[in-house]
Amino acid sequence: MAIELRVPTILRTYTGGEKAVNGDGDTLAEFIDNVNGAHPGLKERIVEGEPEELRRFVNVYVNDEDVRFTGGLKTGVKDGDVVVVLPAVAGG
């Protein structure tokens, strides 16, 4: 069993239209790197800067827990976990 990334519509151009893709890793950062290997360009839409951190207007959840409160990119992940990426939406 792998870790599943649920991909929002706006990022599906990087996954060939797939709504969900799988990857591996012990931390969220390792998982994102692993998924980016198969789907180049995805990481740059989620992570930025040096040191790397989540983009300001991107929300990431592991099993419905906001990773900003569980360690950010250092959050541990394991087989069977579900990672959800939700870009913030603004408008009026």
TrEMBL record:
Q: Which Pfam families match?
A: ThiS
**Superkingdom, taxonomy of origin:** Bacteria
Q: What's the protein here called? A: Molybdopterin synthase sulfur carrier subunit
Q: Which organism is it from?
A: Kribbella pittospori
Q: What is the lineage of its organism?
A: Bacteria, Bacillati, Actinomycetota, Actinomycetes, Propionibacteriales
